[in-house]
Structure formats: structure tokens, C-alpha cells
Amino acid sequence: METVAAVQFKKQSQTKEVWRRFRKSKGAVAGLLMLSVIVFLLVFADFIAPYAQATQQDLAIKLQGPSFGHILGTDAFGRDLFARIVHGGRTSLSIAVLATISSCILGSALGAIAGYFGGKVDSLIMRTLDIFMSIPDILFTMAVVFALGAGFINLLLALTLAYFTNYVRLVRSQVLNLAELDYVEAARAGGSGSTRIIITHILPNAMGVIIVNTTLNVAKIILYESTLSFLGLGMPPPAPEWGLLLADAREYMRVAPYLMFFPAMAIVLCATSVNLIGDGLRDALDPHLKS
Amino acid sequence: MSEAILEIKDLWVIYKTDLETVAAVNGIDLRIGKGKTMGLVGETGAGKTTTALSILRLLPSNTGRILKGSIRFQGEDIMGMNEARIHAIRGDKIAMVFQDPMTSLNPVMTVGEQIAEAILLHNEGIKTAEVDRRVDDMLGMVGIQASRKGEYPHQFSGGMKQRVVIAMALACEPELLIADEPTTALDVTIQAQVLTMIKDLRDRLGTSMLMITHNLGIVAKICDDVAVMYAGEIVESGTVEDLFLGKRHHPYTDGLFGSIPSLTSRATRLTPIPGLMPDPSNLPKGCAFEERCAHRMEICLKQHPQKATEGTHSILCHLYGEKP
Q1: Rounded CA separation B70/A262 (Å)
Q2: In terms of CATH architecture, what is A23-50+77-289?
């Protein structure tokens, strides 16, 4: 039998292709740059502004505006605001990222199981979910934090439980579509078991949608987490945290408005950049826009 | 008669929904000899694919049910198997090629990975180098350069994809290959290529085959035996010679032949079979083909016909009731 002459395709991996399309969007690239700068500052926070500056009180220099010594000024206890924002960002952002990842894993697993097996399993998971969703998010997280006490792990748990429901519904709807496709049927005819089909054939094909949703969720959780700490349900003081900085600054709004302005800017910049990246990824991963 | 690799006896399958019950397969008998190719012919909705899915126990679990009958593969009862055993058989002993190559490959896995998956699944503890070698072999066998195994399905044309699908199905050298209209979605020139390839591979590997098609040309080209299905029943079965050269036929088979354009006769019009297949959720009491039949008789309305057998050739029709 003749061998069909192979047309030499330019080999291009999926990742490269997505990156090529991602780069086309100016907003997405700007978001990525902005986030890179933020992440760089947070990662090297200890060298840029040592943690001591963020917690050590020095009443002699309290409530000073931005200057060379303290580029964003100092708060009511003479602590360096820049150091507090940078170190607060570490907590805020890592909670946001970790909560997103854990809610994504929990939600995707449940969604895939519900969508793939259907029937009673599906009803059980979805009805339980309805109970979760019938309680307003903010009330729910507050209840969890009140019950378990404030702290990194408990905050993570509260945010995960508040956000995993999105993923269950999203992934379930994807799986319902994907499970009907011929290659899933073909995999079944090839002797693959359910777990293998879900992991190697269904979830990778739903990845685009999951990734986009995840990025957009990071932004939501950053805001949400700030809200919680603003209400005093975040990390216990004196640890700096964006929401907490805002809450503290309220008293000095008239004398030192920069105390409120800079942490707010940090939240806005961070959420915006992550949102821009999410939008860019959605366009890059959408097969309908492939050109 | 040679040893049978697959034997279906009196198989009844229904699809049950809240609204209606569809009788998809109604008491069929089918026997595929070892190393033989059986052609299953019939129009859309006749129950061909349902039969194939029943063999692999892949009927949609929420609606499809096997009412009764037995399916034996190499003497082993498929319906009585536990989950582990049927998983071990699927893909390893019985493999299936689906109709549309455009959708039967996973778009996010390279073709090499997909062929390797089939091999890995049924050969535990196999070495990576060995898998690689076999993937290369399989691709070579279906006429694709082994260097293309790192490419994704969207980089292949339809005909090439169907070759990949066939390579996946044959990767474990199955005893029985079920091909569900493997060439329907391809254009005519590629159809011939793929068919020739299937035939070559079958002869080389000694695989038995169930070829589902609605194309009598394909049957003539590669099958040994034929079964014609209509409304969930096998109305005529026999060897290819019985069907193409025999004198007596079920009126439906006659109709099928009448619907093929001929190169030699000067007739300008085809003679299609009038009407449509009866609603499978409401089958008539008598013969299912009665409404469309040119030879219909009084008895056809009232009584379901009996099978009339002569040697290898059997016909389900009142015309041949007493003496076929």
C-alpha cells in the first residue's frame, strides 16, 4: 500500500497557538504586564520593604504624607504604608489564588461526576448545591468564619465553599455536552473506564472554559476577600491586608486620604489586571474565533 | 460451517422513554464465522447500529434495554459478563470504528497518544519503547508516516482521520472488528482507498468483521455473508452469492437492488421503494414491509411471516412460506 505523502505542516503546539492569539489583544498584554509587576513586588517584598517596616510602630512619624523615606507615607502608628500594602498583598493574593484553585478542583470534580453519571448521583449533587446557593455568599462566609474563627486556613475554607458552586454548574454543563460526542463513545468502545474517560477525554476538552472562569474568579475573590477583612473577618491584626488597611483608614479619611487611596488602588489594579487577562484568555481559547 | 466467533440469537432491543417505547431490534439471529466478514445492510433507522452497540453493551444506559436473547462471543455470554470483563473485551477483542472520523478523535490529544492509549489500556506494564514501536507500526500499516504521530487531529484530512481511527481500532489486533458505516462520511475517491485498506488489513490480520453499511457495492466488494435489516428484523440473509446471484429475494432486497443506478442498462430512471419505514414505536401486527410491498397479500396484514430457509439462504416473507 502506498504511503500518503505527508504534507509538512508547521508544527505548532496548542500553547503556542493560544499565546499567539493572546498577544493580539492589547488589554490582555497590559493586564499581564501589570500583574507581573505586582507579583514581582509581592515575591520580593522582603528585599524591597522589610516586614518590620510594616509592623513596627513609630509614633513620631505618624500620619505623614508620601515622602522619599516613605514613598506612600505612614499610617496612624507610623508604619510604612508601602510596606503594609506589599505585605498585605501577599496574604490577599495568595488567599485569592489558593481559594480559586481549591474551589476549582472541588467544583470541577463534583461537576464532572454529576454530568457524566447523571441520574440519582446528579440529583443528589445538584440538590445539595441548591442548598449551598440558597444562602447569600457573604452571609455564608461570615457564618463559616464566625464558627471556625478568623485565620488563613479558615478564610480559605470559607471562600472555597462560597465559590465552588460556580464550577460545579459550569463543568456539569460542559460535561453534559462533551459526554455525547463520538470520541467519548469511541473511548468507551475501546475499553476505557469512566474515570479514565473523564480525566483524559472530557476534562481536557472543557479546560478552556474552566481556565477562563478561573482567571475571572481570582479577581472576584480578591474583592471578596478584601470585603471580608474590611468587615473584620479576615486575617487577625496586626497582619496587614488590603481590606483591613481600608477599614483602618476610614477614621483618617479627612486628614490622610492617601491612606485610603493607595490600598484601594492596589485592589483595583490587581482585580483589573486579572480581569483583563481573563478576557484575553477567553478570546484566545474560544475556538469560534480561530483564524 | 466454520466455527462462529459471534452468535446472536433472538435479540430484542427497545429504547424506552417517558413518551414512547421504540422497538429497535426485534428478534434477530446473526452468526459471524471466524475470519469471515458479515455485511449488515439496511436503511437508516433499521436497527443496524443498535445491534452493533448491543454487542459491546454500549446502549445508552438511561433508555436502551435488551429485552431478551443472547449474544455469545467466542462461546462466552456477553450479557452475563461483569463490568471488568466487558472492559477487557472492548477494544482488545472486539473493536469498533465509528461512522464519522471528524468527531471520533479527541481534538486535544495527538494521534500518536490516542493510538498509544488503546495499546496501554490492554497491555499492562508494557514498556514505553515498545508502545512507541507499535504506534509507528500501526500508522505505517494504515499508510500514514510515523513522523506525523505528534500532530493533532485537526491537522489531518477526513480520509486520514479515518485511517487513524482504524489504526486505533486495530492496535490491539482484535478478533472482531465492527465497522459502522466507516466510509459514509468520506468522499467517493477516499471511500475506495479506505475500503481497500480495510480489506487488506483484514486479510493480513485474519480479523472477523461486522460491516454495517447501506451500500450494496461495499457488500459485494468485501463481505462473505450478508444480512438485510428492515424495521429491526433481518428480512433476508445468506452468502454474498445467495444475495447477488440467487433467484428468490425478499421484496425489500429487490427494492434495494432496484434503487442502484446501473452502468450497463439504458434505463433513465431508478425505481425507488415507495413509502417510508413504519414507525418503530408502533409496528404493524403483520409483516413490517407490507405497506410498501409490491407483492402484498391478504395474509401479510394479519400474520407475521416465518423464516423460509434453503441452505444458507433464508428469507422472512409469506411469498416463500411453504417452500422457499
Answers
A1: 76
A2: Orthogonal Bundle (1.10)
